[in-house]
Specification:
The protein has 217 residues and is α+β, with helices and mostly antiparallel strands. It has helices at residues 3-42, 86-89, 93-107, 122-136, 139-142, 165-174, 197-200; strands at 114-117, 159-163, 180-182, 190-193. The longest helix has 40 residues, at 3-42.
Length: 217
Amino acid sequence: MSSSKRAWAAGRRTRSTIFAAALVVSATVVGVLGYPSLMASSSPAPSPQPIVLGPHTSLGRDDQAAPGQPPMDVPDGTTVFENAHPAVAKLDPKLLHALRHAATDAGDDGVEFAVNSGWRSRKDQARLFREAVAQYGSETEAARWVATPGTSAHESGDAVDLRPAEATAWLSEHGARYGLCPIYRNEPWHYELRPDAVDHGCPPLYDDPTQDPRMQR
């Protein structure tokens, strides 16, 4: 074998030796670095955070669980055309007429109005408020989401909470022409009748129910 071939062969053996050593080192590093990841993946997942009463929970969520059941236990899929359920049947007739008019037109766009909460008894309102206080820890904070018994427009049948999000999105664009307006910025599912909105548009939103003068009585 020529000297040049012997040198090439020796160099090849040296490179092979170095390459093999590098593989061993790499495997060791990967094993060490991967160990914490394996340990982490085998650790139990953190416990889910408790659900608090807030946007669209007991009152409305969308899509969204809450303490207890919705007021009047309104069945899923109840629409504004339901006549048998008190949550719908006891709504103010003018509000209900406007809702059904809007829902008929929304249906042409493939949108359905489902009622999450409509008319409520004083007992229902009191239960909701107690649940909110338990969740938020104070009556002051709870009042941002649930009116105190005796002040809610739901008790007089003058308010309705709607779902799904497609329904409230449709109303946010078209509701004023039917006199249907959102009232609270933090409750986009809550609608009431404001007849003047047909000509003048909906009034400015309150940030939450605590800013509504009706809640102060």
